[in-house]
């Protein structure tokens, strides 16, 4: 890996080498051949854009402190660390070095204790951390300011130079003619009056604006040259220098030709000589006056530095100007477009600042544009001012927030039908699961997550205890107000239902006896009817459920058809479930066979001759195969299994050997004849 010294971000060494190479290529690609190599272009860090020279491209793997090359892996150390003391100098440098073990990221502030005094040196030295050794005693500075009249009144501050004097005083200009109130920090100033003092010649006055010191000699005194500079005259300052009458010979603006006029005052004329000029792009030439530039109509087809648009400038010299079109790409904030000129690479971050407010708008924080989507709104300390959504006149006090207000936790206090007040928490906005609204079109539609709706629930039954008198036992027992009627113990009935498998789960209720001899544990007409499915175990191998609902006794035989594949997996068979589950192994093999020839291929390459069967195919292949002798004259049909076992082989007979001998003799004779023919041809 490699670590950036600007942001300390860690990159793979191969990745940063490729990044540096690509960056240098992108910077140097629009250059012409004349400009290439004249400047050492830097490459930036991918994260912080800290620039490095081409020679600083990493080519070796070092630890974080840079002491060890290719540090070894140690499970007890930080990865890529050498385990030695860092000893890098602190930033800003203080003379001490980092004492931590080789570590990633920046070094911490210097922890050394030093004895230092304050900025103004008035307070006694105190021991402090080296990283925070500069401190202020907060006493007035008292140093003399540059104006020389006042002292610094600011508290003890850093730096040798104090701030400019903020006071105002009357100060004269440089020539001393005007006086004005100005800041003490800028005592020297110039007025706008011309000096006007008489020069030593006595004929002219000084034309300089407000200056210090003597005015100097008259600029027209002494030896003076003619306008062309060839002749020198000694004249009084009241006379102008005459022209010498010689040719001017000054170099004109073109820098090639000389002025052909006689010595004259003022600037020379433009060069009017006709020369053959080459246009700026170097493709055309033409004879025109020297002072006129020659530009052809050919448009440049080079790509500008943005690597997107052509130059399209007439008669371009090759150094195309930067692209003048607006970039216009959407910035990372997704709100604005790039206002810069068309450029390569990614655009700069959006410079706009956006306000992120709380719900009431009284608390505001400023964030860069684009981050308002991800940053959390500020926490507001103001109380929520929304009106209550329930029947209470006021809601509970809580802070400003987004979304719905929290549910009301005050007591309901609504009057019930019995006359009592509802004591439970407010239930005007309870969340209720919404079910059974959407009808599915088929099994391909998957049920979504249950939706919750906010609705008002009715008040629960009144739980105020009411004394109730029971006739049979002559007792007064307190019962809830809503159930002050026929008494029920609230337990399950527990009577055995007609299916003989389940009991009645209805709440304790009255049961009418049909006859006096009936068992008290049996269910009556008021009990629930069993609606469960049959849960009795099925025969081994039967995947179907019992077709009857919950019933007493044994389940009926399963007559449904099973859809299975045969042994060879080519045919689909339909078999009664009862036959398949009651059959033994041999009968199951017969039932699951399609009675067709097995399609499997034997190792010898022939198809199995057996009828559709389970397991592996037999290896005794009875297919007739032609066997030939080595010379392929004799042929014989033999079973394939015998050939695979190596029991049979066919050898050549005497006739085969005789024919082979005669063929070899014929070949030898032909070879000898060919050799004799070659010898005759060479002779």
Automatic annotation (TrEMBL):
Q: Does the keyword Nucleotide-binding apply?
A: no
Q: What positions does the domain NF-X1-type occupy?
A: 94-112, 147-167, 201-220, 254-273, 281-302, 306-325, 333-352, 390-410, 499-532, 542-560, 604-623
CDD domains assigned: NF-X1-zinc-finger (cd06008), RING-CH-C4HC3_NFXL1 (cd16697)
| N-terminal signal peptide | 1-20
Gene Ontology, cellular component aspect: nucleus
Q: State the coiled-coil residue ranges.
A: 652-681
UniProt protein name: NFXL1 protein
Q: Which organism is it from?
A: Odontophorus gujanensis (marbled wood quail)
Tell me what gene encodes this. Nfxl1
């Amino acid at each position: 890996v490699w670590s950036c010294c600007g942001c300390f971000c860690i990159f793979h060494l191969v990745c940063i080498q490729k990044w540096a190479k690509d960056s240098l290529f992108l910077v140097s690609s629009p250059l012409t051949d004349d400009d290439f190599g004249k400047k050492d272009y830097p490459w930036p860090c991918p994260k912080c854009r800290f620039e490095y020279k081409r020679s600083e491209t990493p080519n070796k793997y070092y630890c974080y402190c840079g002491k060890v090359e290719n540090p070894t892996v140690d499970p007890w150390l930080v990865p890529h660390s050498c385990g030695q003391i860092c000893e890098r100098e602190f930033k800003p440098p203080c003379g001490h070095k980092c004492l931590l073990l080789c570590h990633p990221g920046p070094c911490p502030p210097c922890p050394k204790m030093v004895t230092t005094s304050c900025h103004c040196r008035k307070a006694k030295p105190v021991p402090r951390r080296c990283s925070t050794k500069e401190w202020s005693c907060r006493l007035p500075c008292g140093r003399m300011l540059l104006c020389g009249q006042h002292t610094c009144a600011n508290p003890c501050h850093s730096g040798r130079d104090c701030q400019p004097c903020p006071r105002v005083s009357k100060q004269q200009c440089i020539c001393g003619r005007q006086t004005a109130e100005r800041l003490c920090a800028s005592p020297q100033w110039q007025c706008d009056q011309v000096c006007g003092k008489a020069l030593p010649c006595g004929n002219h006055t000084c034309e300089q604006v407000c200056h210090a010191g003597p005015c100097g000699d008259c600029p027209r005194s002494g030896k003076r040259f003619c306008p062309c500079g060839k002749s020198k005259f000694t004249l009084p300052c009241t006379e102008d220098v005459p022209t010498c009458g010689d040719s001017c010979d000054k170099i004109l603006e073109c820098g090639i030709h000389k002025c052909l006029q006689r010595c004259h005052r003022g600037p020379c004329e433009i060069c009017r000589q006709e020369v053959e000029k080459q246009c700026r792009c170097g493709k055309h030439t033409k004879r025109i006056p020297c002072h006129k530039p020659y530009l052809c109509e050919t448009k440049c087809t080079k790509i500008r530095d943005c690597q997107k648009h052509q130059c399209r400038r007439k008669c371009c010299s090759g150094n195309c100007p930067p692209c003048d079109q607006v970039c216009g790409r959407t910035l990372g904030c997704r709100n604005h477009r790039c206002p810069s000129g068309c450029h390569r690479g990614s655009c700069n971050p959006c410079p706009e600042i956006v306000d992120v407010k709380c719900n009431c708008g009284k608390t505001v924080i400023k964030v860069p544009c684009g981050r308002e989507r991800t940053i959390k709104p500020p926490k507001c300390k103001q109380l929520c001012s929304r009106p209550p959504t329930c029947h209470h006149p006021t809601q509970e006090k809580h802070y400003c927030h987004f979304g719905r207000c929290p549910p009301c936790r005050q007591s309901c206090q609504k009057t019930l039908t019995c006359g009592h007040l509802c004591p439970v928490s407010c239930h005007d906005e309870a969340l209720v699961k919404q079910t059974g609204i959407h009808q599915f079109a088929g099994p391909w539609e998957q049920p979504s997550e249950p939706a919750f709706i906010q609705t008002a629930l009715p008040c629960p039954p009144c739980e105020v205890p009411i004394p109730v008198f029971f006739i049979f036992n002559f007792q007064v027992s307190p019962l809830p107000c809503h159930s002050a009627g026929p008494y029920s113990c609230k337990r399950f009935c527990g009577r055995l239902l007609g299916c003989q498998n389940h009991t009645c789960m209805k709440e304790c209720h009255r049961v009418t006896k049909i006859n006096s001899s009936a068992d008290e544990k049996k269910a009556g007409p008021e009990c629930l009817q069993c609606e469960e499915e049959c849960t009795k175990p099925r025969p081994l191998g039967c995947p179907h459920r019992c077709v009857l609902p919950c019933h007493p006794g044994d389940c009926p035989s399963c007559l449904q058809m099973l859809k299975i594949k045969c042994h060879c997996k080519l045919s689909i068979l339909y078999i009664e479930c009862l036959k398949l589950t009651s059959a033994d192994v041999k009968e199951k093999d017969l039932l699951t066979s399609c009675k067709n020839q097995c399609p499997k291929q034997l190792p010898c390459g022939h198809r199995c001759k057996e009828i559709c069967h389970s397991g592996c195919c037999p290896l005794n292949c009875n297919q007739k195969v032609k066997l030939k002798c080595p010379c392929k004259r004799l042929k014989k049909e033999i079973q394939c299994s015998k050939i695979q076992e190596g029991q049979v082989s066919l050898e050549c007979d005497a006739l085969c050997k005789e024919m082979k001998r005669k063929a070899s003799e014929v070949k030898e004779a032909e070879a000898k004849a060919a050799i004799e023919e070659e010898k005759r041809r060479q002779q």
